[in-house]
Design brief:
- The structure is a single chain.
- This protein has an eight-stranded parallel sheet, with helices on both faces.
- Helix content is 37%, strand content 12%.
- The mean pLDDT is 98.
- With 339 residues, the protein is an alpha/beta fold.
- Helix 4 (89-108) runs parallel beside helix 5.
- The relative contact order is 0.16.
- The longest helix has 20 residues, at 89-108.
- The structure holds zinc ion.
- Zinc ion (ZN) is lined by residues 160-162, 245, 247, 285-286.
């Protein structure tokens, strides 16, 4: 298997200050994950290029992009209480979005089987017109929009502990993009209820799997088999994007889920099996315990190479078993609405 790894030293220049959890050391933790998995030499490292205006503006209106650029260049630091930027941040966010598109172009040319992108700032909370939750531009959404523009059908599977409100919002009425999110509920940003299922032509192509605190990997695996696999088959997905936040790890300081790095690896291995090789792209989103990020990156990248790596034990027996009934009932109701 050929696996692309795209990051950039310059992402460390996105300066969030001395006490912010979304900090440059996270990227060193990701690099340590490649070493832990023994794939440091096996990955093909590629240098990202900035997304063009046209590529960004498939998702983010020009006025929003210019506003973010002016804000950062002005030297202001707080977009909101927890979204902190520095002078370079808008350009680096553009580079993060470009990294995804560049990896897609290489895979479409048959150069690789999968790609792991490690950008800063992350993306999945950014809506089309609002930066929030540490995020400026939505990299997964920009990547998905570049694919639907050429007729692909994209599933974005979001395994960050937080709901990807931005991604959901951008594609809420779009039948070409299936958005699936496992996330802790309740938790920031408070969105992602099971009853939020898309609307209009996008009815049924948003699937929220709200997990209770301390939820374990067995329930993630059960939901994958019973909900996610049938949904991806029904959608006719041709490309897969994973928003891989590793803050669902039980050691994460911001959240309360019960996962381990092995759960992350197994979940990624399962999810990528739903599309052929060469159509699989993973974006780092959150993840704030550095050792958990290292181990979870190792298990995830190993999965992209077709290996199951368990730096820790997979988990089972915690709460979360009732989510499958909740979501099944919701999806049956949509079926009735359509019929
Ligand atoms: Zn998160």
């Amino acid at each position: 298997m050929a696996v692309l790894f795209s990051t950039d030293e310059r992402f460390r220049d996105h300066d969030t200050g001395p006490f912010h959890p979304e900090r440059a050391a996270r990227l060193a933790a990701v690099e340590d994950g490649l070493l832990l998995a023994g794939v440091d030499d096996a990955v093909e490292r590629i240098e990202p290029r900035p997304a063009t205006d046209e590529e960004l503006q498939r998702v983010h209106p020009e006025a929003f992009v210019r506003g973010i650029e002016r804000f950062c260049e002005s030297g202001q630091t707080h977009v909101d209480g927890d979204t902190v930027v520095s002078v370079q941040s808008a350009h680096l966010a553009r580079l993060g979005s470009g990294a995804g598109i560049d990896a897609i172009e290489r895979m479409r040319a048959g150069e690789a089987d999968a790609a792991f992108i490690a950008p800063r700032p992350p993306g999945h909370h950014a809506t089309a017109t609002r930066a929030m939750g540490f995020c400026l531009f939505n990299h997964a959404a920009v990547a998905a929009a570049s694919l639907t523009a050429v007729g692909e059908r994209v599933a974005i599977v979001d395994i960050d502990a937080h709901h990807g409100n931005g991604t959901q919002d951008i594609f809420y009425r779009d039948p070409d993009v299936l958005y699936v999110s496992w996330h802790q509920h309740p938790l920031y940003p408070g969105t992602g209820l099971a009853r939020d299922v898309g609307e209009g032509p996008g009815l049924g192509t948003t699937i929220n799997l709200p997990m209770p605190p301390a939820a374990t990997g067995d329930h993630y695996r059960g939901l994958f088999e019973q909900i996610v696999v049938p949904a991806i088959e029904a959608h006719g997905t041709t490309w897969l994007i994973i928003s891989a936040g590793f803050d669902g790890h039980r050691d994460d300081p911001l959240t309360d889920l019960g996962l381990t790095s092995a759960d992350y690896g197994d979940l990624v291995a399962d999810v990528i099996s739903t599309v052929p090789a060469g159509r699989r792209i993973v974006f780092l989103e959150g993840g704030y315990d550095l050792e958990a990020v290292t181990r979870s990156t190792a298990a995830t990248v190993a999965a992209l190479f077709g290996e199951r790596l368990h730096p820790e034990r997979p988990t089972a027996g915690g709460p979360g078993g009732d989510v499958v009934e909740l979501v099944t009932a919701t999806r049956e109701r949509i079926g009735n609405l359509r019929a």
